[in-house]
């Protein structure tokens, strides 16, 4: 099987176009292209859209490069004068003209309007107060809404239409109408229409059930798509800072931007520090563009790579270039998953076999019919009844193709993934790419952040070293203790806290104080407020000259300010050992600056280590007074005075230790990759069970110096990497993947994007994560909880095993249905299962079977077995054992009934053949009903675990049985059945039921090698196979 499926193999992430085309070309037998390839990217359409997008980017790039070059030239001409006669009133009610200022990079008009203040005045908004909430609807009517034109969703009737594009069903519809025509001519009304009408009603049932299932899937994907597009941003409205959806933005909004944000609309720079944006998504131009007062235009869809700023929104939605791009991007479609492709291969192989059997069945029936006519010397005379018989043979052969070509096999993957994604969304995991959920089932390693993922991210300062002594900040009940700091020490400490921060302290309409910023900075700001600091007062009296926001590569931030007395001072805050290395002095208890001797430096280093061993996150605050002339953009590199060492508590999340244990038991290694101090990282890692005996904790600086051979040796043992940079994380992921690991990675910052892109499955944090990280991620963890990642792994395994269950069930039905009809046709000259009956069987094993088995929720046992390797065969030996065992039993029973059923059942009279064929059909269906229950677990004997709580499975089972009763007892005229007495009903059920103990016996036959793997923490993987009862 693996040899046959070699063309149906694609990577889970970033498959090449050649690989996508290769498997499409290998699919040679498809009943309905519209349905089979609905969830597959349209490569031709994608190519057209990408060419159009490239043209737009080229136009935008040419415009911006040309305008920028002209702008630099004009700025170089001292005598150049900008137009000052621009009429502001022309822009207040003309959204196109206003949008063109940014889109055309129109500095002439910008300066003619007196800059951003003049534009704000033209559109009636205050830069300090923002838009008034009462004006939102008016602004949306005037300037438009911040939404993009999307392709309308398909109606239910379109899904009906897609289902009717099945070639075999079209042929059967033609056969049905021909049958009705011939029947009316030979048997008259109404007897002549029953056979054809039965086929039509069966087709109607198949089409309706298929369309309903597909339509519900589409609604699930639509809901997921809405969740993917939920992006929020911070704005100033009604004098207050608020968090709103980007789709609620209006022209005139004051938007706050920080590292990792996506610019949500076209706008103009108001104020900010070190703002760098990446415009490659819009212009295709690599490199970062610096934005300031001289180059103030910000474009929707670009990404903030560094710095922070406020901007005035001037154009939204389809008035932006990004809007035009998004309209096309929405039509590209998503790449198919490896499992979808693999099952397309399986369906192709089975379809070819089914086609062969269908042709052979038709030939055998036809040849036998012709030979019998020849033996009766009737070869020269053909009647309409003969034509009807030939038509029945053809219809039976076509229906065998319907049954044999498992069209629903690849679609079952989509159904299972859609179901899993919907459930995961309820569990706070938003799957952005279909393949991620599937791949996570095979993950062997999770490289996770510490802060916010393993910990709560609810940080609070609990200890501080200042003025030469360590102080507890809070008592045992959490109340703030008196700091007892001298005024001079308190002054410089509060200046450092309130000035050296990218966060803000704001008050809402009710006067309630809120802190907008990262949890770390929020904790420090809260400490400043707790000891009596006034954020607004200090900010108002000290002018900020320049700010360098925190960057995970530098592990520090800095700000340069002018004090009230005119003194220029630089503050620095960041990783404790890094900032300590920049310091030459410290502040003593009286606030005086004293030299930092080696003895004192070692003492402070011991304090930092002590804090870290208590699992506290440590940061240092320092400052330096700059004498003489100074360029605000070049802060001093050394010579700082240490103010304080801050110890921040970030408690472990509830349930993390259990989640880590679950991963280890499932054969998934958990590695912590953090920027924190190594002692802090080790303390947390031990607390949650990641760092175990024999495990290795390493710093990023050491990791970088290792050779490839050394990395090969230590990489499997690395459990903690501390003080790591984003590059270290990327290199670790790349190395682990090179060792055939399936690596999942968590990330939240802009610089985590390369690692997320490189990984097999990238997880971005929904709360702490930036938009740049989320865009590169495959899954967004909306609650930032590590336990949620484990749920994704569990559901990933459930998807894989559910599809295996469905394939096992479908192959069994295929083998039995094909063999019983073919062998019977060869021996008796007739097929016991008619076209209508086979269509019903197809519905049971295809759409309803997928619904029942592909949507089973995961059980805890899934996380007690090793991950499935990518090289493992999808149809395992255990599955073949179950398939062949059940097929042999069912075929033996049905062949005996077909060839010796009448004497065994004591059937006599004219109706004996009809009763026998009905009984065979009924028995066959009940064999499948009980085999579907058997298929709930491939290798465990207890198949009833969780069955009655799975309402979808129970609903399908009950519906199948009820409809079978209706078909046999009440629809005999259309389905070629006759009512059965209660003894035959009971016998059909018993024969089907016997398949269950047979399945239990089969599961005791060992066919797979039992492999017991030992984990680095002493956990043992439970063996996989029939001995797992």
TrEMBL record:
GO cellular component: plasma membrane
Keywords attached to this entry: ATP-binding, Calcium, Calcium transport, Calmodulin-binding, Ion transport, Magnesium, Membrane, Metal-binding, Nucleotide-binding, Translocase, Transmembrane, Transmembrane helix, Transport
Keyword Signal: no
A Pfam family assignment: CaATP_NAI
Alphabetical list of SMART domains matching this protein: Cation_ATPase_N
Major location (coarse): membrane
Membrane topology: Multi-pass membrane protein
Residue stretches spanning the membrane: 156-180, 192-212, 349-371, 391-420, 811-831, 837-855, 879-900, 912-930, 951-976, 982-1002
Entry-linked InterPro entries: ATPase_P-typ_cation-transptr_C, ATPase_P-typ_cation-transptr_N, ATPase_P-typ_cyto_dom_N, ATPase_P-typ_P_site, ATPase_P-typ_TM_dom_sf, ATPase_P-typ_transduc_dom_A_sf, ATPase_P-type_domA, Ca_ATPase_N_dom
Keyword ATP-binding: yes
Any GO molecular function: metal ion binding
Localisation: Membrane
Cation-transporting P-type ATPase N-terminal domain sequence ranges: 110-184
Enzyme category, top tier: translocase
Catalytic activity, reaction form: Ca(2+)(in) + ATP + H2O = Ca(2+)(out) + ADP + phosphate + H(+)
EC nos: 7.2.2.10
Record family assignment: Belongs to the cation transport ATPase (P-type) (TC 3.A.3) family. Type IIB subfamily.
Function: Catalyzes the hydrolysis of ATP coupled with the transport of calcium.
Name under which the protein is recorded: Calcium-transporting ATPase
Taxonomic lineage of the native organism: Eukaryota, Viridiplantae, Streptophyta, Embryophyta, Tracheophyta
């Amino acid at each position: 099987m693996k040899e046959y499926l070699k063309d149906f193999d694609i990577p889970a992430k970033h498959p090449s176009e050649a690989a996508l085309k290769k498997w499409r070309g290998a699919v040679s037998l498809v009943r309905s292209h519209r349905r089979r390839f609905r969830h597959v990217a349209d490569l031709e359409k994608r190519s057209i859209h990408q060419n159009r997008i490239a043209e737009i980017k080229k136009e935008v790039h040419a415009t911006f490069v040309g305008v920028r070059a002209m702008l630099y030239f004009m700025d170089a001409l001292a005598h150049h004068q900008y137009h000052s006669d621009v009429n502001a009133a022309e822009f207040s009610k003309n959204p196109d003209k206003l949008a063109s200022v940014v889109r055309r990079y129109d500095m002439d008009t910008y300066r003619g309007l007196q800059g951003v203040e003049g534009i704000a005045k033209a559109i009636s908004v205050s830069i300090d107060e923002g838009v008034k909430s009462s004006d939102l609807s008016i602004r949306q009517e005037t300037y438009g809404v911040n939404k993009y034109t999307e392709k309308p969703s398909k109606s239910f009737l379109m899904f009906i239409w897609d289902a009717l594009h099945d070639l075999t069903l079209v042929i059967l519809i033609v056969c049905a109408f021909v049958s009705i025509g011939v029947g009316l001519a030979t048997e008259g009304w109404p007897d002549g229409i029953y056979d054809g009408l039965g086929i039509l009603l069966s087709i109607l049932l198949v089409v309706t059930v298929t369309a309903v299932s597909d339509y519900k899937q589409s609604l699930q994907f639509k809901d997921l798509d809405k969740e993917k597009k939920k992006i929020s941003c911070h704005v100033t409205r009604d004098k207050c800072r608020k968090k709103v959806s980007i789709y609620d933005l209006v022209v005139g909004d004051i938007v706050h931007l920080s590292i990792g944000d996506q610019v949500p609309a076209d706008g103009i720079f108001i104020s900010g520090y070190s703002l760098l944006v990446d415009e490659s998504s819009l212009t295709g131009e690599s490199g970062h563009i610096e934005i300031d007062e001289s180059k103030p235009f910000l474009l929707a869809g670009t990404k903030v790579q560094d710095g922070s700023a406020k901007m005035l929104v001037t154009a939204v939605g389809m008035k932006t270039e990004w809007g035009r791009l998004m309209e096309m991007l929405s039509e590209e479609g998503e790449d198919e998953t490896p499992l979808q492709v693999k099952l397309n291969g399986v369906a192709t192989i089975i379809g070819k076999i089914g086609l062969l059997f269908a042709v052979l069945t038709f030939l055998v029936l036809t040849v036998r019919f012709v030979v019998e006519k020849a033996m009766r010397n009737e070869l020269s005379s053909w009647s309409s009844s003969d034509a009807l018989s030939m038509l029945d043979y053809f219809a039976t052969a076509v229906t065998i193709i319907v049954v044999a070509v498992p069209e629903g096999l690849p679609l079952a993957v989509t159904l299972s993934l859609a179901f899993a994604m919907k459930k995961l969304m309820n569990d706070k995991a938003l799957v952005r790419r279909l393949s991620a959920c599937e791949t996570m089932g095979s993950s062997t390693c999770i490289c996770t952040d510490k802060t916010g993922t393993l910990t709560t991210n609810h940080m609070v300062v609990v200890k501080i070293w200042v003025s030469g002594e360590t102080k507890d900040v809070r008592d045992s009940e959490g109340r703030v203790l008196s700091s007892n700091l001298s005024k001079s020490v308190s002054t410089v400490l509060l200046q450092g806290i309130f000035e050296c921060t990218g966060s803000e302290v704001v008050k809402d309409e009710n006067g309630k104080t809120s802190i907008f910023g990262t949890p770390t900075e929020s904790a420090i700001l809260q400490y400043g407020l707790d000891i009596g600091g006034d954020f607004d007062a200090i900010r108002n009296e000290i002018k900020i000259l320049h700010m360098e926001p925190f960057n995970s590569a530098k592990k520090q931030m800095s700000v340069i300010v002018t004090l009230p007395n005119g003194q220029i001072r630089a503050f620095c805050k960041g990783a404790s050992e890094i900032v300590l290395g920049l310091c030459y002095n410290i502040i003593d208890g009286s606030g005086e600056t004293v030299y930092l001797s080696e003895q004192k430096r070692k003492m402070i280093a011991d304090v930092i280590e002590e804090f870290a061993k208590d699992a506290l996150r440590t940061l240092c605050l320092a400052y330096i007074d700059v004498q003489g002339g100074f360029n605000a953009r070049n802060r001093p590199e050394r010579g700082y005075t240490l103010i304080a060492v801050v110890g921040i508590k970030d408690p472990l999340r509830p349930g993390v230790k259990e989640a880590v244990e679950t991963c280890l038991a499932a054969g998934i290694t958990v590695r912590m990759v953090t920027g924190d101090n190594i002692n802090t990282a080790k303390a947390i890692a031990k607390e949650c069970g990641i760092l175990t005996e024999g495990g290795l904790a390493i710093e990023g600086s050491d990791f970088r110096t290792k050779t490839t051979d050394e990395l090969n040796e230590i990489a499997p043992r690395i459990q903690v990497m501390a003080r790591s940079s984003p590059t270290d994380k990327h290199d670790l992921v790349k190395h682990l993947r090179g060792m055939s690991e399936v690596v999942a990675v968590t990330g939240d910052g802009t610089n985590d994007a390369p690692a997320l892109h490189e990984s097999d499955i990238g997880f971005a944090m929904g709360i702490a994560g930036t938009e740049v990280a989320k865009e590169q991620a495959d899954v967004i963890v909306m609650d930032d909880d590590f336990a949620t990642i484990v749920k994704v792994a569990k559901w990933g395994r459930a998807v894989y095993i559910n599809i295996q269950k469905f394939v096992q069930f479908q192959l069994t039905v295929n083998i039995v249905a094909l063999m019983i009809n073919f062998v019977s046709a060869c021996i008796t000259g007739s097929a016991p299962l008619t076209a209508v009956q086979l269509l019903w069987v197809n519905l049971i094993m295809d759409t309803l079977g997928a619904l029942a088995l592909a949507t089973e929720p995961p059980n805890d046992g899934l996380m007690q077995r090793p991950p499935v390797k990518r090289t493992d065969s999808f149809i395992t030996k255990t599955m073949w054992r179950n398939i062949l065992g059940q097929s042999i039993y069912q075929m033996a029973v049905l062949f005996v009934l077909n060839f010796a059923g009448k004497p065994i059942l004591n059937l006599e009279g004219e109706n004996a053949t009809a009763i026998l064929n009905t009984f065979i059909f009924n028995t066959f269906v009940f064999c499948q009903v009980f085999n579907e229950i058997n298929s709930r677990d491939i290798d465990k004997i207890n198949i009833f675990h969780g069955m009655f709580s799975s309402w979808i499975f129970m609903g399908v089972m009950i519906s199948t049985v009820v409809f079978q009763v209706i078909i046999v007892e009440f629809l005999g005229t259309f389905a070629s059945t006759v009512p059965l007495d209660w003894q035959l009903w009971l016998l059909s059920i018993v024969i089907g039921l016997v398949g269950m103990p047979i399945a239990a016996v089969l599961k005791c036959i060992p066919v797979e090698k039992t492999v017991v793997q030992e984990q680095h923490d002493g956990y043992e993987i439970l063996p996989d196979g029939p001995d797992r009862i």
